[in-house]
Amino acid sequence: MAEGNAIYSVVSNAIRNGDPLEDLLEPLPDAIYLTSRDGRLEWANSSFLYLFAGSLDRSVQLPPVDITYDPLTRMSDDMIVGGCDALEFQYKSYDVRHRAIILRTVKRSLADCGDPRIAIFGMTRVVEIVDPTGEDPTARIKRLWGCYQGLSERDQGVLTGLARGEKLKDVAKRMRITEKTVDNRRKAALKILGLRSQVDLVAMFVRFHDRGYGNFGF
What DSSP letter does each residue of 92-159 carry, written as one string? Predict the structure, then answer.
C-alpha cells in the first residue's frame, strides 16, 4: 500500500498539472492503469499491457475481464466509485497467456483530480505464478467437469454437501456412512480433481454454476 500510495501521489499530481504520464510510469515493473467510472481502460503502462494484452501495442483491444475468475475487479471498482478512498487486496487470476497467477492490487480514487474521464488509479503486482502451464481457464473448467462427472454418485454427494457448508457429521448422517468414510472420500475426490482446499472446491462449484453445468444450490 505504501508503494501504491507513493505512485498514486505522482499520478494524481501529474493529472492535475496536465503532465504526461509515460516518462513517469513506463519504467515501473508493476502494472499501472487508470480507468473510467464504468471500467473502461483510459491509460496503462507497458507492464499492464504485456501482462493482460500480451502486446505493447496500445491499439490492441484488451480481452474482457472474466468476472468468474476476477470477481474483485468489478467489485473493487464499484467500491471506489461509491466513495471508498483506497483498497488493497490479493487474488488469483489469469494472464493473457492463461497462466494462473496471484496478484496484489492497490486502487485509489481519482475523482478529485479534475479529469472527468478518469476515476480510478490501479497498481497490480504479480506475487506468484501458480500454474505456468498456460491451460485455458475455459478448458480447465471443462476438464474439471469431466472429472467430476466421472466420480461416483456418492462421491459427488459428499463434495456438493461439503461445498455447501455441511459438516462431516452432517454429510455422514445424510448419506448414512461414517464420518471417516466421508473424509476419506473427500480426500480421494479432491486428489482426482487436482484441488487442494475447501476454497478450491467451492470455487469449482461456483464456476460450474456460472458456466451452466448445473445448479448446486450456491
Answer: EEE-TT--EEEEEEEEEE-TTSS-TT--EEEEEEEEEEEETT---HHHHHHHHHHHHHTS-HHHHHHH
User: What CA–CA distance (Å, rounded) separates 76 from 105?
Assistant: 10
d(CA 33, CA 114): 17
Among 56, 14, 9, 12, which residue's Cα sits nearest to residue 31? Answer: 56
What cell does 147 get?
Answer: 472429472
What secondary structure does DSSP assign to 4-40, as a single string?
HHHHHHHHHHHHHHT--SHHHHTT-SSEEEEE-TTS-
Q: What is the pLDDT of residues 137-173, one digit of tens each?
A: 777 788 889 999 999 999 999 999 999 889 999 999 9
SS3 content of the chain, % helix, strand, coil (to 5): 45, 20, 35
pLDDT digits (tens, 9 = 90+) for 110-141: 999 989 999 999 999 999 988 777 777 777 78
Asked if 163 and 216 count as a contact pair (C-beta separation under 8 A), the reply is: yes
Please, are residues 31 and 19 in contact by the beta-carbon 8 Å criterion? Answer: no
Q: What is the pLDDT of residues 18-36, one digit of tens each?
A: 999 988 898 899 999 999 9
In the block, which residue shows the cell 454427494?
A: 157
